[in-house]
Design brief:
single chain, alpha+beta, six-stranded mixed barrel, 17% strand
Length: 396
Amino acid sequence: MIKDYLKFSVNNIRHRKIRSWLTVIGVVIGIAAIISLITISQGLQNAIEEQFELFGANSVIISPKGFENMGVQAEGLTQDDVRTLESMSEFKYVSPMATSVAQVEFHDEIKFLTVAALPAEDYIDMYGDMGISTEDGRMFRRGDGSSVILGYRVANKDVFEDSVNIKNKIKIRDEDFKVIGVFEEIGNSGDDNSLYITLDDFRDIYNDQERVDFIMAQAKPGQDIESLKEKIERKLERARGNENFQVMTATQIMEQISSILGIMQFVLVGIAAISLLVGSVGIMNSMYTSVLERTKEIGIMKSIGAKNSDILSLFLIESAFLGLIGGFFGVILGTAIAKLVGFIADQAGFGLLSIKINLGLILFGLFFAIIIGMISGALPAKQASKLKPVDALRYE
C-alpha cells in the first residue's frame, strides 16, 4: 500500500511540475535560511570559544570602566594598579597592555594599523600560555628596543603590496622599528593584522610613561577564579580610592558572548521561520486545489472500495513528499550558503570561522520539512477523505 501511495504522489507531483516547484519554494527558502543561520552561528560560537581557550580559564582581565557623572570620565589604569596586582601572591604573572591605531609606513606605503604592546619579558610567558609562537624570527627578549613583531597578514602581502621580511625596517608614528619576528596565523583579522612592540617603546612614541589600557593577569593553578576576582576588586578599590575599573574572567566574557549569540540566533531563526510559514501555506493552498481538481478521481476510488483512511493517507503522503522535496533542496542550499560564508570569512582573515556540516542538523531540517508538509496537508486531506462518492462523481 505504501508503495502505491508513493507512486500516486509522485505521478500527481510530476503532472503539476510548475505548481509543485512554486509550492515548495517557500519551504526551500525557509529550511535553507534555518540551516545556514544555525550552521554559521555555531561556527561563530566555536571560533569565539577557541579564542578564549587561548587565554585559559585562569586568565583575568582588568580594564577601565567609564561612567558619566556631570560629564567627568573615569580615570584609566596606571602602573600603580599593576604594582597593586603584582603584590598579590595568587598570580603567575601580571602584564600591563597598551594598544592603539597608529600610522605605519613600509616602502612609502602608509596604512593605519593596530599596535599592541606588552613588556618585552612578558611576551614569551603570555603567548607561550596561549600556544602561540613566531612563524619566523624570534620573540622579544628583555632589553629589546625599537623592534617589532608582525601579525601574520601584515607580513604576507595582505596589508602592504610588498611582503615584510625579518630585519626589514618599518615606521610606526615616524619612528623606525626593526622586524625581529612574524607571529603564526592566529585566525582572526584583529590579531593577524596587528603589530606588536614593547611597552617601553609604545610609551615613548606616545609620550605617556604611565599608560596602561588593560592588565592581563594569569592566576596560578588551583586558584578559585571567582574568589580571586572579588579579592582583586577589593584591593584595587582600596588602592585607587574609586571603582572606576572592571574585572572580567575569560569564562565570564565567554558566557556573555554566548548569551548574545543565543539571542541573535533565536531572532534570526524566528525570521527564517516566517519563510517556512509562507511555504506551509503554499502547500496547503496547493493541496486544496488538488482536492478540487481530483474530486471525480476521489469519487471513482471510493466507488471501487477505497476507504476514507486511504484517501487521507494518499493526500498526507503527497503533502509530506512536497515537504521532503523542499527540505532536501533547502538543506543543500543552506549548507552551500554556510560554506560560502565560511570561505568569504577565511579570505577576509577570519580563518577561525570553521563551518562544519552537522549531520544531526541536516536530518532535523529534512524531518522538520516533512512534518511541516504533513501539517499543511492535513486539512485538505481530511476534506478529501470526507467526500461522498455520489457527490464526488457529480462534481463539475
